[in-house]
Design goal:
alpha/beta; 40% helix; ten-stranded mixed beta sheet; 10 helices
Length: 285
């Protein structure tokens, strides 16, 4: 089955790097890549301002559209140069609307399986692990996994994918599909990492672990349990050798995603702009 992947771009170097990463990651797979750019010019709020500035607004809108077409044409020549894979089909789309409105339309229309995007966009705030567009995409689009790529990372197949979990969710095969797929495509080992705060698993956690083992049965995977109070000491290998790693987790609907990335635990794990981050969605069905 052909995989359909959306690659949003704001024509920044970070977005281009994410496109390049996606092409390399899925070089052996049949894929349709939808490279999309949204452009938007909000109208004035008040009616009298709309009447006074309508001509000026349309002029600006035409300018924005023309610039978007020019940028997309340049991007198309660059991407076509790096991707001559017969298994890949490339679509380049400019669309009017806010970023998330445009993304919603393409996901619903094309039944997208995965979104791959830069961790940060054109503003490139080095103090943030993920940019606002990436964070909001993970929060809002519950039907697609989101893989965010650091702006300056050079592609190499991940040697291992660290799957962080507390075993408090009921795992489902379809929500884990992208993790399993990437592990097989890259021959990466999945390291199931449990940061333990309690002494023993609850009955629910034991059942969920058995279920996860069953779902991951066709992959290479291991379990690593670390007590939270000994995390920094016990996990030195993880924090000191992030090269060749990817981190993944299930984005639970009611969790505060932003707090995950600002917590001391995640900082101790070494989650930073040096590692691709795969956010799997907690699917209902």
């Amino acid at each position: 089955m052909t995989k359909r992947i959306v690659l949003p771009t704001d024509f920044s170097k970070n977005a281009y790097n994410a496109i390049h990463y996606a092409i390399e990651l899925y070089k052996t797979q049949s894929c349709e890549f939808f490279i999309i750019h949204s452009y938007y010019l909000p109208l004035p709020e008040f009616k009298n301002e709309i009447l006074l500035s309508l001509e000026s607004t349309f002029k600006k809108l035409n300018e924005v559209e023309e610039q978007a077409e020019k940028n997309m044409k340049n991007l198309k020549s660059q991407v076509s140069f790096i991707d001559d894979n017969r298994n890949h089909t490339l679509h380049f789309l400019n669309d009017f609307g806010t970023f998330h409105d445009v993304l919603k339309r393409i996901i619903e229309k094309k039944e997208i399986h995965l979104i791959i995007m830069g961790m940060r966009g054109e503003t490139d705030d080095e103090n943030a692990i993920l940019g606002s567009n990436t964070l909001n995409t993970i929060k809002k689009f519950r039907s697609s996994a989101v893989l965010s790529i650091p702006g300056d990372i050079i592609f190499k197949n991940p040697k291992e994918i660290v799957f962080a979990t507390n075993f408090k969710i009921h795992f489902k095969k379809n929500e884990m599909a992208t993790l399993i797929e990437i592990s097989k495509v890259t021959n990466a080992t999945i390291r199931v990492l449990y940061i333990q705060s309690d002494k023993e698993f609850s009955k629910e956690q034991k059942q969920n672990k058995i279920l996860l083992d069953k779902i991951l049965g066709s992959t290479k995977y291991t379990h690593q349990r670390v007590f939270h109070q000994y995390l920094q000491e016990s996990n030195q290998d993880f924090t000191q050798s992030r090269d060749g790693k990817m981190i993944a987790f299930v984005n639970k609907k009611h969790d505060s995603f932003g707090s995950i990335f600002s917590s001391p635990m995640v900082k101790e794990l070494g989650v930073s702009t040096n590692m691709p981050v795969l956010a799997l969605q907690d699917l209902k069905n």
